[in-house]
Amino acid sequence: MDSEVKFILKRVFVIDIIIAVLAFIISYVFYKPYDYIIIVGLILAAFNFVLNAISTSFILSISGKKFLTILISAFRIIITLCIVIILCGNDKFKYIAIIIGYTLHYIAVILHGLTIKK
């Protein structure tokens, strides 16, 4: 993996931790039953972000394997979907909470992008 990609992953991970702590405090105060679900959504998004970086680096290092990209992406989506369904079950508010947590990771990515000085 490229050193720039590793740097990006580390910076986004630090921002994710800060956002996770803030989200946990806010959700614990206002939405106590869903505090861990929001954090799980953030962790799932961060995990997918790392897997995407690793798989993209791998795919770019080998040529002619475009189908492998689609296969790896589909596998990650299916695994994430299974985890979400197991955690949320029939509670629609848990689905909303996990989507909020997943979205919080994208805020970390945007904040990282805003701090780049290039």
Automatic annotation (TrEMBL):
Pfam families: ATP-synt_I (PF03899). Its main location: membrane. It is found in: Cell membrane. It is a multi-pass membrane protein. InterPro entries: ATP_synth_I. The chain crosses the membrane at residues 12-31, 37-60, 67-87, 93-114. GO terms for cellular component: plasma membrane. Keywords: Cell membrane, Membrane, Transmembrane, Transmembrane helix. This is ATP synthase protein I. It comes from Clostridium acidisoli DSM 12555. The lineage of its organism: Bacteria, Bacillati, Bacillota, Clostridia, Eubacteriales.
